[in-house]
Design goal:
Layout (H helix, E strand, L loop, with lengths): L2 E4 L11 E2 L5 H13 L3 E5 L5 H12 L3 E6 L2 E5 L13 E2 L4 H11 L5 E5 L10 H9 L3 E5 L3 E7 L7 E3 L5 H11 L5 E6 L6 H8 L4 E5 L5 E6 L8 E3 L4 H13 L4 E8 L6 H8 L4 E9 L2 E9 L21 H8 L3 E6 L12 H11 L4 E4 L2 E7 L9 E2 L5 H13 L4 E3 L12 H7 L3 E4 L1
Parallel strand pairs: 2-15, 3-14, 6-7, 10-11, 21-22
Antiparallel strand pairs: 1-22, 1-23, 3-5, 4-5, 7-9, 8-9, 11-13, 12-13, 15-17, 16-17, 18-20, 19-20
Length: 445
C-alpha cells in the first residue's frame, strides 16, 4: 500500500487539539511477558494492539499462559508462575517485532525447553547474536542461520548468573539478560556504556523482583537482578507511547497555526530525548501535568507551531533516550534554520532497516541536503515552508521511515508518497485515520 501526504492546514482536533497517542509499545510487550511469567492474574488497560504486540500475545499463549482480550486495549493474562513456560508445539513467529523476540528469548531461556523463533524478512535480517551470545554464557544452547539470524533455536534451563559488559546501550539486550537472570542462581548484572530505557527494571520491581541500579563516575550504568524471584500478577495501565507522540508533535511543529494536546504520555526520563531536543530547536512541549502511573511518570503535553525552528546538535549521551525518534527528528530538522547534527546512533544501522541511509536517501529525494555519517546524519535545514517534497520515498518496510516522510509531506511544498505503508500497523495502528481526524491530508496513493 502506498500513502500520500499533501500540504495541510493546521493540525488540531475538534476537542481543543486534545488527543491520546497509542499505548506504549515497550510497556505493552513487557506487560504481556511479565504477566505470563507471574503467579496469578495480570490485568492490562491501554495495551497497544499493534501487529508487533499481538505477536507477543500469541507467543505467551504458545508458552501456556492464558491471554484474553475483553475490550479495546483491555487484556487479561493468567500467568504460568511456578510451573514455568511450557514448550511450544511449534516455531513462534514474531513477525517484525525485535523487542518481542529478544525479550522472550531471554525469559524463555530460564526454562528447560526448546524454542524456535522466526520472523518476517526484515526481522530475519536483524542481529540476534547480541542476545544469543550472552545467553550462551549463562548456559543456554542455541543454533541459528548465519551465526545469529532467525530462525534460531534456543535450548534453555539450568542457567548461571553472569556479570555482562554490554558494548551497546540497548534495552533489548539488557532486558533479555535480566529476564534470563530471574531463573539463574545468584545475581545477574548488565553494565552498559550509558543507561538505556528502564521499563524492565521498573516493571520487575512492580511484579516483586529485587532489582538494583547504579551509575559510575564514567557514566556506565549497571542493572542487577536477584535470581529466584517469584513474580506476582499486577494491574498495569499502559501510558501513551512517547515515540508515537513524537509524530503528532512534529506535525504540529511544522504546519503553521497548529496546536495539539497529547494526553497520558509516558515521560520516563530515559524516553524523553525527542522532547528535550525539540526544546533545543525552539519548539518545546509544554508539560501541563505529571503524575505516576504504575511506576512510570505520565503527563499531558501541549505542542504549538513556533515562528521558526533552529538547527541543533543534541549530545550523544541523549541518543539512547530518543533512538526510535531519529527518523522523525530528521524530517523535522528539514524545516529548521541551519544545520542539525544527529550522532551517537550507530544502532540505527541494525533496526528494521538502515535508518540512517534511508533517511538521507529520502531527504535528498525531497530536496533537502543531508550528509550520512557512520553513527548519524547532518541535515541542512531549509527553514519553514522551504522543503520542496514532491517525491516517492522508499521505506524498505520500515514503519518509522514511512510515518516520518508522511509528516514531512504535510509541511512540504508538494505531496510526498511513501511505499510499503501497511507496515505502519506494526507500531501505530490507525495512524492515517488519526492524522486525518486532526486535519492532515493523508490518503492512499
Amino acid at each position: 500500500m502506498r500513502l500520500v501526504a499533501r500540504p495541510s492546514g493546521p493540525i488540531r482536533s475538534p476537542d481543543m487539539g486534545r488527543v491520546r497517542p497509542p499505548g506504549d509499545k515497550s510497556i505493552s510487550h513487557r506487560a504481556l511477558l511479565f504477566g505470563a511469567l507471574a503467579d496469578g492474574v495480570t490485568t492490562i488497560d491501554g495495551l497497544l494492539e499493534s501487529e508487533d504486540v499481538l505477536c507477543t500475545a500469541a507467543a505467551m499463549r504458545a508458552f501456556g499462559a492464558g491471554v484474553t482480550r475483553s475490550a479495546s486495549g483491555r487484556w487479561t493474562v493468567v500467568g504460568r508462575g511456578a510451573a514455568g513456560f511450557a514448550e511450544p508445539a511449534g516455531p513462534i513467529d514474531f513477525g517484525n517485532s525485535g523487542t518481542g523476540v529478544r525479550l522472550t528469548m531471554g525469559a524463555a531461556a530460564a526454562f528447560p525447553i526448546k524454542v524456535t523463533y522466526t520472523g518476517d524478512a526484515s526481522l530475519s535480517g536483524r542481529p540476534m547474536g547480541r542476545i544469543l551470545d550472552p545467553l550462551a554464557l549463562m548456559g543456554a544452547r542455541w543454533s541459528a542461520r548465519d551465526k545469529g539470524l532467525l530462525p534460531a533455536t534456543v535450548h534453555g534451563g539450568a542457567l548461571r548468573a553472569i556479570a555482562y559488559e554490554s558494548p551497546h546501550a540497548s534495552a533489548q539486550i539488557k532486558s533479555a539478560i535480566l529476564l534470563a537472570g530471574l531463573g539463574a542462581d545468584g545475581q545477574t548484572s548488565v553494565t552498559e556504556p550509558r543507561a538505556s530505557r528502564d521499563h524492565t527494571e521498573r516493571m520487575l520491581r512492580a511484579f516483586g523482583a529485587e532489582v538494583r541500579e547504579s551509575t559510575g563516575a564514567d557514566g556506565r550504568h549497571t542493572a542487577t537482578v536477584k535470581g529466584g524471584a517469584r513474580l506476582r500478577g499486577q494491574p498495569i495501565a499502559v501510558p501513551a507511547d512517547p515515540s508515537s507522540a513524537a509524530f503528532l508533535a512534529a506535525a504540529a511543529l511544522i504546519v503553521p497555526g497548529s496546536e495539539v494536546i497529547l494526553d497520558d504520555v509516558c515521560l520516563n526520563p530515559l524516553r524523553t530525548g525527542f522532547f528535550d531536543t525539540i526544546a533545543d530547536m525552539g519548539g518545546g512541549a509544554e508539560t501541563i501535568d505529571v503524575r505516576d502511573a504504575g511506576g512510570e511518570p505520565v503527563g499531558t503535553l501541549r505542542v504549538r507551531a513556533p515562528q521558526r525552528l533552529r538547527g541543533a546538535a543534541p549530545p550523544e549521551a541523549r541518543a539512547a533516550s530518543m533512538i526510535d525518534e531519529y527518523p522523525i527528528l530528521s524530517a523535522l530538522a528539514a524545516f529548521a534554520d541551519g544545520e542539525t547534527t544527529l550522532s551517537g546512533a550507530a544502532e540505527l544501522r541494525v533496526k528494521e532497516s538502515d535508518r540512517i541511509a534511508l533517511m538521507v536517501e529520502g531527504l535528498h529525494a525531497c530536496g533537502v541536503d543531508a550528509d550520512e555519517r557512520p553513527d548519524g546524519l547532518v541535515i541542512h535545514g531549509r527553514g519553514p515552508g522551504g522543503v520542496p517534497g514532491g517525491a516517492t520515498v522508499r521505506t524498505h518496510g520500515d514503519h518509522r521511515i514511512a510515518m516520518s516522510f508522511l509528516i514531512l509531506g504535510l509541511g512540504a511544498q508538494a505531496p510526498v508518497v511513501v511505499e510499503d505503508a501497511e507496515m505502519i500497523a506494526t507500531s501505530f495502528p490507525g495512524f492515517a485515520d488519526l492524522m486525518r481526524s486532526l486535519g492532515a491530508d493523508i490518503s492512499e496513493a
